[in-house]
Design goal:
The structure holds two protein chains of two kinds.
Chain A: H1 5-15, H2 21-38, H3 73-77
Chain B: H1 9-17, H2 23-35, E1 43-46, H3 48-60, E2 72-76, H4 103-110, E3 114-119, H5 153-160, E4 167-171, H6 177-183, E5 186-189, E6 209-214, H7 217-227, E7 257-261, H8 271-286, E8 290-294, H9 302-317, H10 335-346, H11 349-362, H12 368-388, E9 394-398, H13 414-418, H14 425-430, E10 434-441, E11 447-454, H15 459-473
Helix pairs in contact in B: 2-3, 5-6, 7-15, 9-11, 9-12
The chains are: A mainly alpha, B alpha/beta.
Chain lengths: 95, 485
């Protein structure tokens, strides 16, 4: 399988990472060499194998649903690139 | 008295407890040396003034019951540290100042440790040479223009150069053990679930573990004791009875069965590494251990599996960097354009590459062929270890297939860079603990490491085996301070 420029552009769209044509060409080469390496797995028969999703495979512990941190609005907004003291600010979404 | 910076971590602790030296003296010594060592580029953020203040406070009101009483430590810049900038080696977090503390660094603070700075690393811990960091390459103190390994490259460099008496790194596919091996130091990746992931900038959540990087095995046992804890803030933290790793450290490995996986004899591996491996086996036998050949038949599939699972998890974890809540933001014509430009300008090439691999293998139509397949193979790899551990107590392998390489040597070929982790990646996939210890040098005089892999939660056993090997090998790092004028 090869990852052509069109596919690279599609993945970049899904990843929300813009790329120009020069970079797309280089990326397509890189991704192709990586996928060639990854495709070794096709040789393995895994028909009857259960996927391993978590290494601990234990049930997650339940805890009480309670508020642990209060009045942290300032903390949360502290690192935002643009805010108006109360909210995160983004470019206009609704006309 | 010998130089403070030449003392081992456990010696520093003893001397501070006996009031032979003060926390201020120790902190000053490591800061002085760090200041003279800027050429190594080990640090991203220095916390020197604040650390000296903390040391002074400790000396005024010392608590000698702590495990790290007033001991200064620099840590990998992947751990969120309250009020100290945390970048993960990325432009996208260049100005990020956490408002909370990671559990692992909190454990260090609770035991009296003092954070003197944040150490360089590959961007989001994605790399094996520290060359993907937005803050530049790190020099290996062993020799100029040699990589210190990665992703915990600033940590291994600072440790080997004695800018910090010990440090902590994170290991997703070898990021503690490979840099330890490249710098002649000790690095341990604990069992998945041993150290809390809370407050560690996430890369691949089912693989990430924090762990100690130290100059010797005894220090490693001490550091593990400090950082390993059950934490309800990390849902994958495991509530098991943690050992007294330092107190129970001993070199008696009589009757231990040590497995040698034949699949780790890879083509093109330098002869010196094979000889080193044999040397390790001989030491084990001389000390009453038994060497048993074992089979890990799916070893060859570990790297391809890793390069599906890790990027898949990364693509999802790194979706949070959108220029809205924190971090770098680029201007865009609209919201989507802002996202795309922010991420394009904020991430480096390797991170973008991995996000895109991850996005692709999770995308509609490809999920089964790649991601699900990889999860199935991951099960096979774990089964291999489960089978092997019916016959043996631990496994001995080389840590890496080569010694440290030159800066720039592998940057143009991602696959050859990935091959660095061939001996370390399977252990993360299986969630097991493993330690790398320095065991010899190659013909250029660069350090080489041996890896001891344990059963889940059997850290004490691999520490003891490593301790026994260390005592018999008597490894010395050849470092001549070339970076200090």
């Amino acid at each position: 399988m090869t990852i052509d420029l069109k596919t690279v552009k599609h993945i970049s769209k899904l990843s929300r990472i813009s790329i120009d044509d020069n970079k797309a060409k280089k990326l397509s080469d890189d991704l192709n060499s990586i996928f060639k390496f990854i495709e070794k797995l096709e040789k393995l028969d895994t028909e009857k194998i259960e996927p391993l999703t978590s290494i601990s495979e234990t049930n997650l512990k339940l805890r009480k649903d309670e508020i642990k941190s209060k009045n942290i609005r300032e903390d949360i907004l502290k690192n935002s690139p643009e805010d108006n003291k109360d909210f995160f600010v983004v470019p206009k979404v609704v006309e | 008295m010998s130089n403070i910076i030449d003392l081992k971590l456990f010696e520093l602790v003893e001397k501070i407890k006996k009031k032979e030296i003060s926390s201020t003296e120790v902190t000053k010594a490591f800061i002085d040396r760090s200041q003279k060592s800027k050429k190594l580029n080990s640090y991203i953020t220095e916390n020197f003034e604040n650390a000296l203040q903390k040391a002074k406070q400790f000396d005024e009101k010392p608590d000698f019951n702590k495990k790290l009483p007033g001991v200064p430590l620099a840590v990998k810049d992947l751990f969120c540290t309250k009020n100290i900038r945390t970048t993960a080696g990325s432009k996208i977090l260049e100005n990020f100042i956490p408002t909370y503390e990671s559990t692992v660094t909190q454990n260090i603070l609770n035991e009296g440790g003092i954070i003197i700075g944040k150490l360089n690393c590959d961007e989001f811990a994605m790399g094996s040479s520290n060359e993907t960091s937005f803050f530049g390459n790190v020099q290996n103190p062993i020799s100029e223009n040699l990589v210190p390994g990665g992703s915990s490259g600033g940590s291994s460099s600072a440790l080997a150069a004695k800018l910090t008496p010990a440090t902590i790194g994170t290991d997703t596919g070898g990021s503690i053990r490979q840099p330890a091996s490249f710098t002649g130091t000790v690095g341990l990746k604990p069992t998945y679930g041993s150290c809390s992931r809370y407050g560690i900038v996430a890369f691949a959540s089912s693989l990430d573990q924090a762990g100690p990087m130290t100059q010797n095995v005894k220090d490693c046992a001490l550091m593990l004791e400090v950082i390993s804890s059950y934490d309800n803030k990390d849902s994958t933290s495991v509530d098991f009875k943690r050992g007294q790793y330092l107190k129970d450290l001993n070199e008696n490995i009589k009757g231990k069965k040590i497995g040698i996986p034949k699949q780790y004899r890879v083509d093109g591996m330098p002869k010196e590494i094979d000889e080193l491996w044999k040397k390790g086996m001989k030491i084990i036998e001389d000390n009453g251990g038994e060497i048993i050949e074992i089979n890990l038949p799916n070893t060859n599939y570990a790297l391809p599996t890793y390069y599906i699972v890790a990027p898949a998890e990364a693509s999802s974890n790194l979706a949070r960097y959108d220029g809205v809540k924190y971090g770098f933001r680029s201007k865009g014509e609209n919201l989507i354009d802002m996202y795309e430009k922010t991420r394009s300008e904020g991430f480096g090439d390797e991170v973008k590459r991995r996000i895109m691999i991850g996005t692709y293998v999770l995308s509609s139509g490809y999920y089964d062929a790649y991601y699900l397949k990889a999860q199935k193979v991951r099960r096979l790899i774990k089964n291999d270890f489960d089978q092997a551990y019916k016959k043996v107590d631990a496994i001995l392998t080389p840590s890496t297939p080569s010694s440290a390489f030159k800066i720039g040597e592998k940057t143009n070929d991602p696959v050859s860079m990935y091959l660095n982790d061939i001996f370390t990646v399977p252990i993360n996939l299986a969630g097991l603990p493993a330690i790398s210890i320095p065991a010899g040098h190659d013909k250029s005089g660069y350090p080489l490491g041996l890896q001891v892999i344990g059963k889940a939660f059997d850290e004490q056993n691999i520490l003891n085996i490593a301790y026994s090997i260390e005592k018999n090998i008597n490894f010395k790092n050849n470092i001549n301070d070339w970076w200090i004028n």
